[in-house]
Design a protein that fits this description.
6 strands; 4 helices; two-stranded antiparallel sheet; 195 residues; alpha+beta; flat
């Protein structure tokens, strides 16, 4: 068995997204227009018998290639470009909040009851070895350099620190940036270096 897939073009949370974010586990939602056109009216577990790859949709990707020609002085000159649009398999991602103030912290359990799975649990022709885990900060889809902290799995200690503050209801200082830096440094020291 080879390594789980690491997807290209995934984004990393920045600035205020981290400051105001919380922990969100990335999961895959089952979707099928044939077997479950209305997921609210279908029996639980329908996705287990669906032959249509319910966790995989498609993503349109446009690739632009430059056309070069040799110039009179021997250098290469761009003379145009060609674009190709293709559809490629893409997971049906959703982010499930784990904070107590949203679904009483039971979001992942509720999602599992609706057939959602973790990317690492995916078994599909498009991703035969599943998909590597993601950072658990909201809107952060980094798959490289992840570390486990007491508050979850993140790509940076500052994310783990903000989740620590969120879980403990820390009042975030917005006006005194020196005090805010001290708050973040304290939270980082409390979550440790990760492993």
């Amino acid at each position: 068995m080879s390594e789980p897939a690491k997807l290209k073009g995934m984004r990393q949370a920045t600035g205020r997204e981290i400051e105001l974010g919380h922990r969100e586990v990335k999961m895959l939602r089952p979707i099928c227009d044939v077997c479950a056109p209305n997921t609210k009216r279908v029996a639980p577990g329908w996705e287990k018998n669906c032959p249509h790859h319910p966790y995989i949709g498609t993503k349109t990707e446009t690739v632009t290639e430059r056309v070069y020609e040799d110039g009179p002085d021997g250098t290469r000159v761009v003379t145009g470009s060609t674009s190709t649009t293709t559809e490629r398999p893409w997971p049906n991602f959703v982010q499930i909040a784990t904070t107590l103030r949203i679904n009483s912290g039971q979001g992942v359990e509720k999602a599992r009851a609706k057939g959602y799975i973790l990317p690492t649990e995916l078994v599909d022709d498009a991703f035969p070895d599943g998909i590597a885990p993601f950072c658990e900060m909201s809107n952060c889809f980094v798959q490289e350099g992840l570390k486990e902290y007491p508050t979850g799995t993140f790509c940076r200690a500052v994310e783990a620190a903000h989740v620590y503050e969120d879980e403990r209801g820390v009042t975030i200082e917005f006006y005194d940036q020196g005090r805010r830096r001290d708050q973040v440094a304290d939270a980082i020291s409390r979550v440790g270096a990760g492993r």
